[in-house]
Amino acid sequence: MTTEAVPLIPHSVLFGNPTHLVPEISPDGTRLVYLAPDDGVLNVWTAPVDRPEDARPVTHDRGRGIRTYGLCHDDRTLFYLRDRDGDESWRIHLVDLVTGRERCATPFDGVQARVLAHNRWHPTTLLIGLNKDRPGLHDVYALDLRTDRLTKVAENPGYLSWIVDTDLRVRGGTVMKPDGGLSVHLDPSDGQHGQDGQEGPEGPHGAPHPPWLDVPYEDAMGTRVIGFSRDGATCHLLSSIGANASRLLAVDLATGRRTLLAEDPVYDVKQVEFDPVSRLPQAVLFAKDRDEWVFLDGEFAKDLDRIRGELALLSVDGEIYVDRTDRAERLWTVSVVTGAGPVLYYVYDRPAGTLRHLFSHQRELEAYTLARMEPFAFPARDGITVHGYVTWPPGAERTGLPAVVNVHGGPWARHTFAFDEEAQLLANRGYACIQVNFRGSTGYGKEFRNLGAKQWGAAMQTDLLDAVAHLVAGGGIDPARIAIMGCSYGGYAALVGAAFTPEVFTCAIDLCGPSNLLTLLAAGAPYRTALRSFMHAQVGDPQTERAMLWERSPLSRVDAIRIPVLVVQGANDVRVPQAEAEQIVAALAAKELPHEYLLFPDEGHGLARPANRQAYYAAVERFLAAHLG
Questions:
Q1: Catalytic residue numbers, as ranges
Q2: Can you tell me the distance from the alpha carbon of 122 to that of 74, in angstroms, rounded to the nearest whole number?
Q3: What is the value of pTM for the model shown?
Q4: Is the dihedral of CA 512, 513, 515, 516 positive or negative?
Q5: Strand residue runs (E) in 382-449
Q6: 8 A C-beta contact, residue 518 and residue 550
Q7: How confident is the model over 136-170, as pLDDT tens digits?
Q8: Cβ atoms within 10 A of the Cβ of 132, count?
C-alpha cells in the first residue's frame, strides 16, 4: 500500500463547515440565498442574484448551526428550523428580509414543529404541525406570516402523516395499522371537511367510511400520496401495490381511475420533479448504480439536456439536481454531484440556456485528489443479488488493502452515488471503504426490502459478511485487516460484528447505535410511538419475540467480544437514547474488554457541530491506525 503520493486531507476540510451549501433563488428572482459559516456556525446568507460577492448573513445562530431553511412567497420572509443540542424539538424561526427582524414563531418548550406546506398561491401562510397539546400527535396549524398568529386548522385523530393540497386544505392522512401496514384516508372532494378539525379515520363529523387506500404491510414503505395537481382533479401516488417496486400513478379523484406514469421492475421511484405551476409530474428519477431519469415532459427534458451539454463543455460528469424556486422560472439553481470532488453549484439561465458557476460546497477540497465510489454486486449466501459501492484509496494498488465496512443507518435507507465524506477520509488514509446495500435497504423494490424484516443481526448482517468474502476473494482486501463502523443502525451492525463475528473484524466503531433491541423498542420520543407497530413488524415484537430480540442484541453476547470497540454517543439522542451506549460500555468495562467511549453532551442522533465532528473523526482515525495499521 502506498499513500505517500496522495496528500492527506485535513479533518477540518472534510468535517468542518462547508464553505457554501443548498443555494436557492428567491421566489421573486432577486436574491441568491444559501448556507455558509458566520463566526464558525452555519447561517443563512443572502446576496443580489447577479452579485454573489455582496453576500451577508441574515441569521445569527451561535449553536449547532442551521441546516433547514426556506423562502416564503411573500417575498420578504425566510424561515428556518433549529433545535436545542440535538433534541429534535424543532422550533420555527422567521426572518424579515426587509427589516432584518428575527423571531421564533413556535416558542414552546419540548414541542416539535414540522413544516407541512407553503406555496405561491398562499404567500402569507405557512402550514405547520405541532405536538403542543398531545406529545404523541402533531395537529395542523396555519401560521400567518404577517401577524405571527397561529390558528389550529385540524386536530390529529391518529395520523402518522398529513395529506394537504395546493390550497393548503387538509385532505386526510395516513394511519399505521397494528400489522405495520397503512390506511390512507383521503377526502376526494374539495377538502372542505378538513377545516373544522373533524376529518379523520372515521370520516368528516365522525361518519364512518372505509380508507381511500388500504396498504398492506409489505407495501407500507413504498406507497404514499405525494401531491395534487393545481386544478385539484388529480392526486399523484407512489405505490408498490401490485408490483415489486414503487411506481408513479396519477389518480383521477372523481372516478378513482389510475394511470401509470412511470415504473421500473426492480428500482423504486426516488424522486418526482413537478411543474411548479400545474403541479403535474415532468420527470421521474430512479437511483440505480447511477441516477436514471425518465422524462414525462419534453420541455423539461430539453432543459436537462442543455444543462448536461453545458457541463460537458466544462468536462464535468455527475448527477444533476435542480431547484426551481424562482416563480418566473427564469433562473434555476443546479447541484452537480461528481463523487470525486466537492458538490458543484450553478445558476441556470433558462431563456439563455447557459450555466454560471457559483461555488462548490467546500472549495478547499478542490486542491486534493479524491476517490470516486465504484458500484459492485455479489450473490449473497442464499443467492440474492446484493449491491454496494467500494471507494478505493487513490494511487494505491488494489491488492491486500486494509478495509472498513461502513454500514448505513436507517436501516430503511441506502447508499447512493454521492460525495461521501467518510468514504473520502478512509480512502485518503489508505483504507478501502465498503458500503453495502444489504437486504432491507430501500430503493431496490419491496421484495428485497422486505427480505430484511426481522433480520437485524441475522441475514442483514450476513450480507455484510458476504460482501467482505466477495472482495477478499477478488484479492483487493486483506482478510486480517477489516474494521466495521456505522451510525444508528450502522452502529448496531458494528456492535453485532464485534459480538457475533469477532473473527471477521479487527475492530468496531459504533456511533449512536442500539446495543439492546428490547430497550430500544421500549424507548423513544412520544411522537415516535405511532411507528411502534411498524418497528414490531420489521424488527420484532417484544411481547411474542422477546427471546429472539435479546439473542439479536449485542449486549447479550458481550462476553464474545474480543476486539477493540469505540462507542460514541450524543447525550440528547431521542432515537437511540444514551442508555444504549451506557449499558454496552458498562458491560465492556465489567468484562475488562478493550474499548473507548466518547459522549458528546451537546449532540443528538449524530454529530452536527464541526468541532465535535472533527474530534470524532480524529478518534476514528487514531483508532483505525492503532488496530488496522
A1: 488, 573, 605
A2: 9
A3: 0.95
A4: positive
A5: 385-391, 401-407, 432-437
A6: yes
A7: 999 999 999 999 999 999 999 999 999 999 999 99
A8: 18
